[in-house]
Amino acid sequence: MADMSPIFRSNSTKGRDPQDRLVTLIRKPGCHLCDDAQAVVEKVCGELGVPWEQKDITEDEELHRQYWEQIPVVLVDGAQHTFWRVNEERLRKALTTAR
């Protein structure tokens, strides 16, 4: 299935190595799309050596306000990369392509 969610890009990461990046998964408990997104993030970040973290939208009022209708949300270096469904190849490209 094609990933229909938009990509938001930041120019502030030009020339960075994958290991110098940070992926953030914003999720909530009991969300099957969040579980699917986490599997993709774990796989891609693990293969590339990119650190990643997850944040629970139910524990952060600002994240809840900003992203509630979009979860799961993936940020790359603090900039929104995608939401709802995470495309493995697109995430890999975002982490390995200098912009």
Commentary on this structure:
With 99 residues, this protein is an alpha+beta fold. The chain has one domain (23-96): Glutaredoxin (3-Layer(aba) Sandwich). 33% of the residues lie in helices and 19% in strands. The protein has three helices and four strands; from the N terminus they run E-H-E-H-E-E-H. The chain has helices at residues 32-48, 61-67, 88-96; strands spanning 23-27, 52-56, 73-76, 79-83. A four-stranded mixed β-sheet has the order 2-1-3-4, with helices on one face. Helix 1 runs parallel beside helix 3 (88-96). The longest helix has 17 residues, at 32-48. It is globular, with a radius of gyration of 13 Å. Pfam families: Glrx-like. InterPro entries: Glutaredoxin-like (IPR008554), Glutaredoxin-like_YDR286C (IPR052565), Thioredoxin-like_sf (IPR036249). Residues 1-20 are annotated as: Disordered. This is Glutaredoxin family protein.
The CATH topology label is Glutaredoxin
Structural class: alpha+beta
Under CATH, the homologous superfamily reads Glutaredoxin
CA-to-CA gap between the ends?
A: 27 Å
Order of helices and strands: EHEHEEH
Radius of gyration: 13 Å
Mean pLDDT: 87
State the low-pLDDT regions, or none. 1-14
Share of β-strand residues: 15-25%
Principal-axis shape: globular
What's the helix count?
3
| Number of separate strands | 4
Oligomer: single chain
Helix content: 25-40%
CATH class: Alpha Beta
Main beta-sheet annotation: 4 strands, mixed
What's the architecture, going by CATH? 3-Layer(aba) Sandwich
